[in-house]
Amino acid sequence: MSVNRLFYENTSDSSYATLFFADYDDVTGRLRYVNCGHLPPLLLRGADSATELGPRQLLVERLSSTSTVLGLFENWKCVVVETRLGPGDTLVMYTDGVTEATDRNGDEFGEFRFLEILKAHRQLPVPDILHSVTAEILDFCGGEQGDDITLVIARCGVENRV
User: Fold this and answer.
1) What is the Cα–Cα distance from 18 to 109, expressed in whole angstroms?
2) What pLDDT, in 10s, does the model give residues 127-139?
3) Domain spans of the chain?
4) CA triplet 18, 98, 76: central angle to 5 degrees?
5) Contact (CB, 8 A) for 149 and 95
6) Distance CA 80, CA 66 (A)
């Protein structure tokens, strides 16, 4: 029985959940994932790369939804998507408490500000990126956290892949 069916049969009609699930193969660099209505994780590519023309432009890919949310519909179909991660690529998964954090005027932190912080700190070790983003959000909110701030950041190493 699928997770969707269990959720659909055991919750109220208005209940649903978003889900991002990924399976990563460190040997091949293959990332297989499903995104069931969750905010699209960000895949920062090229953070550590350069060419003879200079630093490579940082590319940002969004791992968009591959199906709808869980639990709202009895008939539900999910598609698994695959991508490859290269050395230095950084995957950033987050909840809406990051981008929807508000300041005292009701303005949202937003994805643009979030991306700018990630770009500015992309060369730091992952724990330092997490600390920097969290500190910026709390500073923006005046220290008043209104929702969860959940971040998961993973970076591929520089060893060779097959």
Assistant:
1) 21
2) 999 999 999 999 9
3) 3-155
4) 10
5) yes
6) 7
The encoded tokens of residue 31 equal: 């990332």
Whole-angstrom distance, CA of residue 23 vs CA of residue 149: 23
Largest CA distance in the chain: 58
Secondary structure class of 81 (helix, strand, coil): strand
Question: What CA–CA distance (Å, rounded) separates 126 from 101?
Answer: 22
pTM for the model: 0.85
Residues in a beta bridge with 108: 102
List pLDDT tens digits, range 33-89: 999 999 999 999 974 444 454 555 678 999 999 999 999 998 999 999 999 999 989
Measured between alpha carbons, how far is 157 from 128 in angstroms, rounded to an integer? Answer: 16
What's the CATH code, domain 3-155?
A: 3.60.40.10
> 114 in helix, strand or coil?
helix
